[in-house]
Structure formats: C-alpha cells, structure tokens
Amino acid sequence: MKIPADIHQRVVDLTNAMIDAGQSGDVERAESLYGELSRYCESVAAEGRDHPFLWETLADFTDDDRDAIGIYLRALPLASAANAADYAASICLAVAERHSNLDELERARSYALQADTFARSTDDLPLRAIISQFLLDHADAADEH
C-alpha cells in the first residue's frame, strides 16, 4: 500500500522534529509537534486520503498506552480494507505490545496471534520473527492468567 509522497514527507518531517525536540529536552515543542501531527492526520482523513501510516505513526508517538491502542485501532480497519497485511501485522503487534504494558496479557496474546496471521501472508521476515518472539516471550505469562 503506497503512501502518497506528500503525506509521507510531512509525517517524516514532523516526527523527525518531534524526536529532535525530545532529545534536546524541549518537551513543550515535542508536545506541540505531536498536536500538529494529530491535526494533520485528521485533516488528511477529512480530505478522503486516509492511510494507516498516519495513525500508526501517531500512535507510535503516543505515550499513553490506552490512547495509543485507540489510535492503532483506527489504523487497523484501513489496513484490512486495503488488504495491506504488512500494515495490519505491524499494527496488531503494536496493540499487543501496548496491552502487554498494561498487563492485559490475554488481549496482548490475541492481538499478537492476529499479527502472526497477517504476517504469514507477507514476505517481511524480520516482522514475522519479531511477532514469533513476542508470542514466545508471552506464552508462559498468558498461561498463568
């Protein structure tokens, strides 16, 4: 699923600026740029040019796990509708990781299994390996609950 060049460039510019602001300790600037990214995502969606890359990236830069999950879940149907298994797998893995952070291990495993299902139809071997490792790392924890 190709990302329109203008969308990709704007998101990359904003995220690079956020990273720079965060690394320099300018929390206010980083938060302002996050807000700008969020507004940009909304405006692109309102134009009818919605893309999972927008929301996955915004969620990646969201500190609160619950908020991030909600944003990832906005990206997931876009990826599924476009048959973009690579995006769907990556998004499901990210949701699994956030649920794991919240000690919601059954939900984490469920999303990791979905990620694995999507990833099997891609040739992204590094992503498939990361998902498999996540499932292995969380197998015992899920059994304990």
Written account of the structure:
The protein is built from seven helices and no strands. With 145 residues, it is mostly helical. It has a single domain, classed as Serine Threonine Protein Phosphatase 5, Tetratricopeptide repeat.
Output the keywords:
mainly alpha
Briefly say what this structure is.
With 145 residues, the chain is an all-alpha fold. The protein has seven helices and no strands.
Largest sheet: none
Q: In the CATH hierarchy, what is the superfamily?
A: Tetratricopeptide repeat domain
Order of helices and strands: HHHHHHH
Helix segment count?
7
Which regions have little confidence, pLDDT < 50, spanning 5+ residues? none
Count of DSSP E strands? 0
CATH architecture: Alpha Horseshoe
Q: What's the CATH class, please? A: Mainly Alpha
Q: In the CATH scheme, what's the topology name?
A: Serine Threonine Protein Phosphatase 5, Tetratricopeptide repeat
Distance between the termini: 38 Å
Number of folding domains? 1
Q: Specify the overall morphology.
A: globular
The value of Rg in angstroms is 16 Å
Helix content: over 70%
Beta-strand share of residues: under 5%
